[in-house]
Amino acid sequence: MHDDRRLVEERLERAVRQFIRPAQYADRVPLALSVWHAPGEPVPVAEALAAAYEPFDTGTAWGRPWSTSWFRMEGQVPQAWRGRRVEVVVDPGFTGEGPGFQAEGLVHDASGVPLKGIHPRNRHVPVADPAEGGEPVHLLLEAAANPAVLHDFVPTRLGDVLTAGDRPMYRFAAADLAVLDEAVWHLLLDIEVLSELMGELDAARPRRHEILRALEDMLDALDLHDVRGTAAAARAELAEVLARPAHASAHRVSAAGHAHIDSAWLWPLRETVRKASRTFANVTALARDYPELVFACSQAQQYAWVKEHQPHIWERIKKAVAAGQWAPVGSMWVESDANMPGGEALARQIVHGKRFFQEEFGVDTEEIWLPDSFGYTAAFPQLARLAGVRWFLTQKLSWNQSNKMPHHTFWWEGIDGTRVFTHFPPVDTYNSQFLGSELAHAERNFAEKGRATRSLVPFGWGDGGGGPTREMLERARRLRSLEGSPRVEIERPSAFFAAAEEEYGERAPVWSGELYLELHRATYTTQAATKRGNRRSEHALREAELWCATAALKDPAYAYPYDALDRLWKTVLLHQFHDILPGSSIAWVHREARDTYARVLAELDALTADAVRHLGAGDVCVLNASPYARSEVVEHDGALTQVHVGPLGTRSLAVAAGHERAPVAVTSATRTGAEIILTNEHLRVTIGADGLLASVRDLDHDREVLAPGSRGNLLQLHPDHPTHYDAWDLDKHYRHRHADLTDAESVELVEDGPLRASVRVVRAFGAGSRITQELRLAAGSRRLDVVTDVDWRESEKVLKAAFPLDVHAERSTAEIQFGHVHRPTHANTGWDAARFEICAHRWLRVGEDGYGVAVLNDSTYGHDVTRAEHADGLGTTVRLTLLRAPHSPDPDTDVGSHRFTYALLPGAEVGDAVAEGLALNLPVRVAEAGDVAPLVRVDHPGVTVESVKLAEDRSGDVVVRLYESRGGRARAVLTSAFPVARAEVTDLLERPLRPASTTGAGLSLSLRPFQILTLRLRPA
C-alpha cells in the first residue's frame, strides 16, 4: 500500500476546520440586546436588575479595563425549532481561545438566579432540549471587561484600575439563539479523540493505520456540503475503532474535574470572587448532565466567598457534595506559597481549611493539594499528618529547569522523619483537556512503570477559572477503555490515592527533605513590602494571641477576641496565596495588600493594647512575647534603657532595668583616623571611611569574623533580566555582572554609648536611589544590627547585602517552619548547583566545627551562600537578597520607600540564631501593665514555644504549640501560671489524641528532633 498518511491527515484537518466544526450549530437567530454599564466596582445582581438599560447593537465597543457591563439578552425560540436542542451562544468579544485572561461573564435568568459562566471554550447557555417552540428567552449577562495583562512580559499599566485608562477593550460579537446539531457535535468529538490518539501512536503500530483508514472512510461517507445530513453515517464509520477496548496493561488514569483558580494574580481579589462564582456555576450545571462528573475543588476561602456572594450557587454546591459529584480537597484556606509562610501560619492554613470543609460539608479532607506553588517546605509532611492528612499532590516540580524529579509516586519525608504519601501527576499539568498528547505523555512519563499502574489527571480550564466542559466529559467517555490509550476513569482524588497507596505504598521510594523548585527563585524577594507585611502580621498575631490569652486568664471580665482574631488570621492566610506573597501579581493586588497589612497591623496593635490594659494596673512594664529571655536596649520616652525580661511575660521597667549600669553592659565608640570602632563586651566592630565593615572581632572567641581582605555589609547591585518570568525568576546569569556600592555620601557617628553606639551611612547610587543604614551595637549584645531605609528607584536590578565570613562551611543552615534545613555550599552536583538562591526565614547560619555565624532578618527570604577563597584558606559568603525591580506584571515593582533590619550574629550556635531571630522579629513592648508571670514556661532551651492562645471551640482551654528547634532530642517540663485540671496532647485542630504526661513539677515532654507538639490545658 502506498503511504498516503500525510495526505489523509491534511484532508481531515481541512474538513474539520472548514466544514465540520462550523456545522455544529445548525440555525441561529440574534437576540435583542440592551446594556447598563455599571459606573464603578461590581454590584450585586439586584442592583443590576433595577438599573435602566439602553439598546445595544452587536459590533459595538464596550468595556473599559476592569469595568462591568450588564447585558439583557431577549428573544423567543422559533416554532420551527420544535423538538431540537436550543442554546444561547454568547461572544462578548473574545480575543482568543484562552479562558480566564480576557472578557468573561456570568449569565442569570430573568429573576437574577445565576445559571452558568461563559468563556471562550464554554460559550453556550442551555435553553430547551427538546424545545417546544415559542419559549421566551430573558437572560442577564454580567460581563467583566478584564484586560489581558501578560503579553510576553512587556510592561503594561493595565494591571491597576488606577492606571489602566478608559478605552473600551472589547467589541460585542454575538448573542444568538442557536440549534446544536448533536450528530455533528458528537462526530467532531469522535474525530478529535481518534485523530489525537493516532498522532501519538508509532507509525509501525497497526492501530495507528486502522484509525487512519477509519477516518478516511468517515470522510468518504461525509458530504461536506451536507455535514448535518450525513454526520450520522460518518459516525458509523468510526464506531468500530472507538469500540476497541484498552489493553489489560494500559496505564490507568484517575481523572478529577478541576479548576485551579488563582485567588489573585493577573486580576484583583474582588475579581476572584466572580471567577469562583462563574466556575462553580459551570460545574454545578455540568453535573446535572453528566452524573459521572467528580469535581475536585480546593481553597476554602473561595467557597466562603461564594457562600457570601452567591447563595444560589452555594446551595447547588452543597447538593453536589452530598451527591458525590463535588469533592472538597486540599485541606487549606488557600493554595498558599509553601516556602515563606511562618510555621504557625502554615499550620493555620491547614486548620482553617479543614475546619471549613468539616463544618460546611461534613467532609474531613485527607490531602494537601498544591499543584502550582513554587516549591515545598520540608516541614509539610509533619504538619499534614498532625492534621489527619494522608496524601500530598503537586505537579509544579515538572517545571524544574535543570533536574527531573526521579519519582511520580513516593513517600515524602520531612525534617522530623514523618512521611506522607505523595503524587506528582505525570501528565505535568493541572489543566488537562484529555488531549491525546496529554494522556500519551502521562503514560510515557510515569516513572513508576513496572511497579505501579495508575496516575491522576486533573482536567478542566484553570488559572483564571472555567473548570471542566461538556466536551471534556464526552472525551472521557470515549477514553474510558480505548485501544492504544490509557484507561480513563473519573473518580474522587481520595479513591485514586487509596488505590495507589494500596498498590505501591510498600514499595514506593522515599524523597527526604524539601521539594525545591528549580525555577521562580525571585519569589523569595519580589514585592518586598508584601513580604514585610506578611512577616510583621504573623508576629503581631502571635503577640496578640499571647497577651489576649494572658488577659483572659488574668481578668474574668476580659472578653477574648475570638472573632477578630479569626478574621485577621484569615486575612493574612489569604495574602499568603502563591501569587500574592511571592510577589507575582499585578500592581493592583500588591497596592491593596500593602493597605490591608497596614489595617491588620493597626487592628492587632489595638487588640494587644487592650489586652495589656487588662493585665492589671501597675508600673510601666516591659512585655516579651518571645519564648526566650531577653537582655537588650529599648527606647522609652525618648531615652535608651537596657532591660532584662523573661520569656512570654512582663516585668516592671524599673526592675527590668535594674542592671543597666553593670560595668560590662556598655558600648563605646571611638575614631581612629578615618575609621570608627564600636565596642562592647562581645564585639569590636571597625567601620571604614567607606561605611563598610572593615573588621568584626568576636571578643568571646578571640577571632576575626570577616574573611581576610574583605569588607562586610557590602551592597552589590546586579543587572536582573530573567529569560522568561520577570517577577518570578532570578536566573543564574545575573551573577555575571555587578557593581559594589562602596561610595558613601556620609559616614557619621550618631550614637556613642554607653547603651548603644551607632554609625549612619548614606549612599546614593543607580537611577536616583538612596540608602541610609544605621549600624547599631547595643550594650551586652552579640548582634550587630543594620537598620536600613531605602528609596528604591532602580529598573531591572537586584540588590544584595554581602557578608564574606572567615568560616569554612560545608553547608548552610536555614530556618524554615518548625525547624531548619541544611544545604550544601558547594555545587558538586546539578541538584546542588540549582540551589543558587535559597529561602530562609528569620536566620541563616554557616559554621565550622566549634564556631558559626548567623545572619538574621526581619522581612526578607531570599539568600545565597557561596564559598570564597582568601589568602589564608576558604571562607563562606552569605548574601541577603534585599530588593528587585522587575517590570511584569507590575511595571513599578518595589519602587518607593522601604525600611527593614538585618543583623550579623557572630559566634552563633543554632539555638542562638533561633532566640535572636525571634528577638529581632518580636520587639519588646513597653506599656503600663501589671507584672504578670508567663502563662507557660519550658525548662529546655531547645523546646521553642510557637504559639499560646485560647482554644478555637471557645471553651476557655489554653492551647500551646511548641517544637524542638535545634535538631536533637529534648526532655523538658512545661509549667503553667494557672492550675491545670486536664492536659491533653492534640492534633493541629485541637482534637485530643492522648493525655499529656504529668509530673509533680508540670507536664513532662519528650520530643524527637523537630517534633511539633500541641497541648491543650484546661484551667482548674
How would you portray this structure in words?
- The protein is α+β, with helices and mostly antiparallel strands.
- The longest helix has 27 residues, at 528-554.
- It contains 20 helices and 55 strands.
Topology overview:
Layout: H1 5-20, E1 25-30, E2 32-37, H2 45-49, E3 54-56, E4 61-62, E5 68-76, E6 86-91, E7 104-109, E8 114-118, E9 124-128, E10 136-144, E11 170-171, E12 174-180, H3 182-200, H4 206-221, H5 227-236, H6 239-243, E13 252-257, H7 269-289, E14 295-297, H8 300-309, H9 311-323, E15 326-328, H10 343-361, E16 367-369, H11 380-386, E17 391-393, E18 409-413, E19 419-423, H12 436-445, E20 454-459, H13 470-478, E21 487-490, H14 493-504, E22 510-512, H15 528-554, H16 562-574, H17 587-613, E23 620-624, E24 630-636, E25 639-645, E26 649-652, H18 653-656, E27 668-672, E28 675-679, E29 683-687, E30 693-698, E31 703-704, E32 714-719, E33 739-740, E34 746-752, E35 756-765, E36 769-778, E37 784-792, E38 797-805, E39 811-816, E40 819-824, H19 830-834, E41 838-839, E42 843-848, E43 851-857, E44 862-870, E45 873-884, E46 896-906, H20 910-921, E47 925-928, E48 936-938, E49 943-950, E50 958-964, E51 970-976, E52 980-986, E53 992-995, E54 1003-1007, E55 1012-1019
Parallel strand pairs: 13-20, 13-21, 14-15, 16-17, 17-19, 18-22
Antiparallel strand pairs: 1-12, 2-3, 2-5, 4-11, 5-10, 6-9, 6-12, 7-8, 7-10, 18-19, 23-26, 23-47, 24-25, 27-28, 28-29, 29-30, 30-31, 32-33, 32-38, 34-35, 35-36, 36-37, 37-46, 38-45, 39-40, 39-42, 41-44, 42-43, 43-46, 44-45, 48-51, 49-50, 50-55, 51-54, 52-53, 52-55
Helix pairs in contact: 1-4, 3-4, 3-5, 3-13, 4-5, 7-8, 7-9, 8-9, 10-16, 15-16, 15-17, 16-17
